[in-house]
Amino acid sequence: MAKVKGISSGVKNAPAYQKVITWIIGSLLVVAVFWDLASPWGIWKLCHLRNEANLAIETNIQLDKQNQMLANKIRQLQSDPTAQAELVRQRLGWVKDNEIVFVFDSRIGRR
């Protein structure tokens, strides 16, 4: 049987140009893998973007809950005069007729 020379004969018996081509292809593969990992568009960037997306989703969920609470508060204030009066009293310090308000200054008596 005759032995056929070619790629299957191994790198040791290959001509010099095949060794060079093998090294070039191997080097390109190593560079490509490193570039895929460390480049600005690589796997690390993908992981970072995925974390940012998850954070944005969590923030959106929290803001949606807050918007719902504020919408409920607005509906309550639009429909309930008692809630309106209570809010005005708390925020603006309004008092009812014949009501006496005592204001205590917490700074008095401190040293």
Keywords:
111 residues, mainly alpha, 3 helices
Describe it.
There is one protein chain. Helices cover 65% and strands 0% of the residues. It is an all-alpha fold and 111 residues long. The chain folds into 2 domains: 8-38, no CATH class; 41-95. Helix 2 packs across helix 3 (81-92). The longest helix has 37 residues, at 43-79. The mean pLDDT is 84.
The gist of it:
The chain is an all-alpha fold and 111 residues long. It has 2 domains: 8-38, no CATH class; 41-95.
One letter per element, helices H and strands E, the order comes to: HHH
Unreliable stretches? none
Provide mean pLDDT, rounded: 84
Structural class: mainly alpha
CA-based shape:
rod-shaped
The largest sheet, given as strand count, sense and whether it forms a barrel, is: none
How many runs of DSSP E, i.e. beta strands? 0
Radius of gyration: 37 Å
| Distance between the ends | 108 Å
How helix-rich are the residues, as a percent range?
55-70%
- In quaternary terms, these chains amount to single chain
Share of residues in strands:
under 5%
Q: How many individual domains?
A: 2
Give the helix tally.
3
